[in-house]
């Protein structure tokens, strides 16, 4: 199939798709939509890879989400085995989540950083990019500040590390710094109804942006509150073009090229 869009972050393996997963995947194929199915823990990472193995236009990412660290310890052996698979194109999601202030005390932050550094080592050893979740506490940029500091340190040891900062909610300045470090920032369908992301979308270089859905979460304005799916990546790409005031086809082609480059994907799958 000829790929037209890439959803850089979705969770098609989740139980929300138990009854119609295959139908959605077929519709994606018909519309030229490829996707990266992202794991959050051991089980969902395994399930992401199983989907990627079964479908040419799906790829997988494997990792341990910072909100799952309390429930499961990092299983480095399993992650290494999964990461070696050619259809695993990224390590994650991993990262820092300081959103819940009561839970995100200094011990929790330290643990999250330690686990994030392990993911970075893994990504470096397989020469694969990272998919990073970074969510600051309300009204701050704390998670981005700490992430930038940590990435700068790790870059000294692993100069080639790169990846996507998923569901970006930070400032234009943080985006600029992260893009300067070799990362991309990605946006979900939240941009179809919330206006606080417009300035960062407008000021970031187009080459530093990816489109994603984070489905099943955050459906676009056309079906707000419902379960989301990767088909919505088309609306995300069109909205990015509208906010930037640029030609939609130029933006579609650029977003596609950015994802192909970041995840080293072939632009066309075997028929
Ligand atoms: Zn996610």
Keywords:
single chain; 271 residues; alpha/beta; TIM Barrel; 8-stranded parallel beta sheet; 9 helices; 8 strands; 17% strand; binds zinc ion
Structural overview:
- The chain is an alpha/beta fold.
- Helices cover 41% and strands 17% of the residues.
- The longest helix has 21 residues, at 106-126.
- Helix 3 (76-83) packs parallel to helix 4 (106-126) and helix 8 crosses helix 9.
- The mean pLDDT is 96.
- It starts with a strand and ends in a 9-residue tail after the last helix.
- It is globular and about 45 Å long.
- Strands 1-2-3-4-5-6-7-8 form an eight-stranded parallel beta sheet.
- It is built from nine helices and eight strands.
- It has one domain (5-262): Metal-dependent hydrolases (TIM Barrel, Alpha-Beta Barrel), CATH 3.20.20.
- The protein has helices at residues 21-31, 42-54, 76-83, 106-126, 142-157, 172-180, 198-203, 233-244, 248-262, and strands spanning 5-10, 33-38, 58-62, 88-97, 130-135, 163-166, 183-187, 209-211.
- Zinc ion (ZN) binds at residues 9, 11, 38, 93, 214.
